[in-house]
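FW: tagging you since you asked about this chain on Friday. Here's the raw sequence from the shared folder, copied in full. Didn't touch anything.
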Amino acid sequence: MLSRRGCKPEVLILTMVGIGGLLFLFATNEGEHVRKAATRVSSTSPPAPTPGVPTTPRHVPECKENSLVANISGFADLPGHIQDFLRYKHCKEFPQLLDAPNKCGGAEGSPGVFLLLAIKSSPGNYERREIIRKTWGEERTYQGVHIRRLFLSGEAGDVREAWKLNRLLRLEAAEHGDVLQWAFLDSFFNLTLKQVLFHSWLEARCPGARFLFNGDDDVFTNTDNVVQYLLGMQGANDGDGHLYVGQLIAHVGPIREKWSKYYVPEQVTATNSYPSYCAGGGVLMSGFTARTIYKESLGIELFPIDDVYLGMCLQKAGLAPASHVGIRTVGVRVPSSKLESFDPCYYKELLLVHRFVPYEMLV
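HL: got it, structure written out here
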C-alpha cells in the first residue's frame, strides 16, 4: 500500500483518469435520465421502460409553448408560475410514467370496485403514502364490497430530486401497484392537470368503478363510514346516478391579492365569481359523475384551481355539488382548548377530516 507521501505521479494520473471516466459515464447515462425525468410542463419525451413495473407511455405530439400570451396586457408583471400556466394551459396530454392497468381488474372487471380511493400525492410525500397504505387506505373487502387505492403524482421540479424521487415511485409501484405518474411538473397550479389526466385514465382503465373518493394525502378518511354511507343510499344511487359531496363552497370568486396561494389574476379569468364547488381536500363522487366530469373536461380549458375547475365541469353538465356534514376540510373544531383534540368521539361519525401530518393520521 502506498502512503500519501510516497504516492508516485504516474499512479495519481491513472487514478484521476479512471475517476474521470466513471464520472463521464454517470453524467452521460444517469444524467441524461435525470434531465428527461425532470421535464417541465412542456416536455413530452416518453420515459425508458422500467422492467417489472407496468407502464403505458402515451406518445403524443410535443405540446409547445403558446408564445402569444406574452402580448397579454400586464403579462410581464405576473408571477412566474402564472406565466407558465398561461403558456401551457392548452396542454392536456402527457406521457404516463407509471400505470396500474390491472387495479380494477381491467375495464370489464371494474364494476366490481365499489370504492376507488384516488389520492393526490407529490413525489416526495413518501411517509404520507405509507401511513395511508397502513391505515384508512388499506385495500380490502368491507361489508362485502371492494376498496381499491391509487396515488396520483407528477414529477419534482428539481433535476436531481426528480431522478431520485422517480426511482422511489418506481419502487413503490413495484411493491404496491398503486401509483399513477405522469411526466409533468407536480405543482399546485398543475393539480387540475393531474385531475384531468386521472379522469382520462379512469375512462380507459376503470370505467365501471361505482364510487370514488378523490382527495389529498394529508387527510384522514374514515373509510368504514364512507362505505356505510354509500351502502345506505344504494337503493337510489348505485353509482349510476349523480353524487358529488364534500365541503360546499358557494358565492365566492377569484382572489386577486398576489400574496395568496390562490391568486388568480384577470389575465387568467375576468370573471369575479366561481360556480359552486366542493373543497378539493376530499370529495366523494359516483362513477356516473366522474365519467361526466371527464366528458365535460374535454371542452373546458384548464383552470389553475382544481376544485373550482371540477365545479366548472359540473356546471356545464347541469349538475350541482352538495354539502356533507361529515366532510370537514378545515378540520374539527374542539369546544374547549382544555379538551383533547384527538378524542375518537369527535371523529367516529365523520367521513373525512383535513389536515394531518403522518404520525397524527396514524394516531
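FW: The longest strand covers residues 145-155.
HL: agreed, and Residues 296 and 313 are 5 Å apart (CA to CA).
FW: great, closing this out.
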